[in-house]
Amino acid sequence: MRVSIPRLAGWAASVIVALEGTAQAEPSALAFDLDVDGPITLAGGLGWLQAISLRQSIGPAACRWCGTNSFDLAARSALLWRDPLDAGKLANVVGFAIAPTAILSAGLLAAWHDDVWPQFFTDGLLVVEAGVIASDVNLAVRFSVARERPWAYALSSQEKANPDLSRDANMSFYSGHATFLFALATAAGTISTMRGYRWTPLVWLVGVPFALATSYFRVASDDHWMTDVLVGVAAGTGMGFAIPYFAHKRVKIVPAGGTVSLVGSF
Questions:
Q1: Of 157, 79, 126, nearest to 249 (Cα)?
Q2: pTM beyond cutoff 0.90
Q3: Domain that holds residue 87
């Protein structure tokens, strides 16, 4: 069946309009301090980049978790591409360029639609902050656990003994791509929900599929076991929700009949 571009565009617009009515309609403020959140995001991002660039010298020289299981082996057999390098390239392009741009753009559209687009600059920083913190935690775990990557697991004993073998071979658990993308997608959706944007469903609909696709590519590229990806999904989702909701939720102190109540803005 052939579908024309105008018809597809009309269908997408209809979905957005229909979903718009399910979102909250009363925007709320977020707790935010540029002097705190700015340096946290900047330092966390720079620290992550430096650690990644030095992983060949500071990464685990040998695997501590070298075995695998039947579930991961079955998933690898089912999802591994004939040319894993193509999947790896897609994971990097989508995960670090296309997906973050799409997620942030959806947040900007949601703020613009409610005529409060300047709030996007705060929203965007808090989304990136969540992604950076989740990625830093992920990298610390990967250095500590030292799980062997699938492609390294498949090497012969002689190949594994090669002193030039990248230490990245021992940094499989858990997936950094899945963690980063699910943290971004969940943080963007959570913040949009906290703000009460009417196009909040659009933010979720854009972010989650990109995060899922990137996670799939990491298994298809032979860079991660399925359990690495599943833990990354859980960790990224958890931190993507917890960081904006608990660290940036506006709480008011309201006197009530001689007592004091705490009222949140969510």
A1: 126
A2: no
A3: 18-53+70-264
